[in-house]
Amino acid sequence: MAQLSFYGLDELMLSMREIAEIPDEVQDEMLDAEAQIVAEAIRGEAAKLGMYSGYNTHNNSRLNAGGIRSEQTESYSTGELARSVKVGKVKAVKGQRQKYIYFAGSRKRGKTRTRNAEIAFLNEYGTRTINQRNFVWVANKKAEAAAVQAAAAVYNRWLESKGL
């Protein structure tokens, strides 16, 4: 069987194989670059949570003219939720590398302790008496382009180091 060969084709095939086999260190660096940007965006949106945050809520059943739930008279935002946003370590799950952004810790509320992740969930999705404030969703949308650009910059540095 005849085999065709072109000048430079062998080097191109080697380069494509190298690109397909991105080292774990580069993947981890790309994930970290994305995660840091998204975590900072979530911290920024979480810091805005409060009675007068200006979020458009979907549970408008008992809101006053200012968009505040009529029975809510105080702002309970302390900034603790924003400070609890952490970036985890890289994990390999079913052959795919992942990095989690989570709400760490808990706080005392009355005689019990409540996890910050639970408070974030209640703020994100709301309840019958708490308006939903999609701060994580908003942060993800705002940080999407910047996170992809950061990962692409890491990937481009790796390509340049390979001479591609």
Distance between the termini: 32 Å
Q: How much helix, percentage-wise, in residues? A: 40-55%
Mind telling me the C-alpha Rg?
23 Å
Q: How much of the sequence is in beta strands?
A: 15-25%
The number of helical segments is 5
What is the ordering of alpha helices and beta strands? Answer: HHHEEEEHH
Number of strands: 4
* Classification by helices and strands: alpha+beta
Strands side by side in the biggest sheet:
1-2
Looking at the structure, what is the overall shape? elongated
Main beta sheet: 2 strands, antiparallel
Uncertain segments: 51-61
Mean pLDDT over the full residue set: 78
Q: In terms of topology, how is this protein built?
A:
Elements: H1 9-20, H2 24-47, H3 80-83, E1 85-93, E2 96-103, E3 106-109, E4 112-115, H4 116-125, H5 135-161
Helix pairs in contact: 2-5
What can you tell me about this protein's structure?
This protein is 47% helix and 15% strand. The protein is α+β, with helices and mostly antiparallel strands. Strand 1 (85-93) and strand 2 form a beta hairpin. Helix 2 (24-47) runs antiparallel to helix 5 (135-161).
Which labels suit this protein?
two-stranded antiparallel sheet; 15% strand; two-stranded antiparallel ribbon; 5 helices; alpha+beta; single chain; 164 residues
